[in-house]
TrEMBL record:
Organism annotation: Haloarcula terrestris
InterPro entries: PUA, PUA-like_sf, PUA_sf, TGT_C2, TGT_C2_sf
CDD domains documented for this protein: PUA_archaeosine_TGT (cd21149)
Domain of life: Archaea
GO molecular function terms attached to this record: RNA binding
SMART domains the UniProt entry points to: PUA
Domain PUA: 80-154
Pfam families in the cross-refs: PUA, TGT_C2
Name of the protein in question: Pseudouridine synthase
Length: 155
């Protein structure tokens, strides 16, 4: 991976996840394995821990569990987090969606379509996915999907 490509990926992550997102996801270009599309665009970013992210056609990252873990370690709560309790933990861990009824709290800055880290109330990562509701209202809704889970911790 070239230095220009590495800087571009970090810049895009900083834009999407806020300051420090690029550093958190891509802490060291030597350990990254980047696959490219036939046109040469970066597509999948892997490390020894697993898939960090997929770089979509729209210029946004879709987090893998390894990337979610890196963001969880780098950012203080509640940034990018949706917190659930014991009742829904086994289902979310398996990769099922997180429903608003079970959300205890969420980052109020989350918007529908943003990447979200689904964490247990004790602070450990259960899944990564796409927010379907605004974070400011997730714990207010009684019905509906809060996070469309892309990958659970046991997938």
């Amino acid at each position: 991976m070239s230095d220009d490509e590495f800087r571009g990926l970090r810049r895009a992550a900083d834009y999407q996840f806020g300051g420090g997102g690029g550093t958190a996801l891509f802490a060291g270009s030597d350990a990254l394995d980047v696959t490219h599309t036939s046109s040469g665009r970066p597509r999948q970013i892997h490390t020894a821990d697993g898939r960090v992210a997929t770089y979509g056609d729209d210029g946004r990252f879709r987090l893998g569990l390894a990337g979610g873990s890196r963001l969880l370690d780098a950012f203080d709560a509640p940034r990018h987090r949706v917190v659930v309790g014991d009742e829904s933990e086994p289902f979310i861990r398996e990769g099922r969606n997180a429903f608003a009824k079970f959300v205890q709290s969420a980052d109020s800055a989350l918007r529908p379509g943003d990447e979200a880290l689904v964490v247990h109330a004790d602070g450990y990562l259960l899944a990564v996915g796409r927010a379907e509701l605004p974070g400011s209202g997730m714990d207010d809704f009684e019905t509906g999907m809060a996070v469309k889970v892309r990958q659970g911790a046991e997938d």
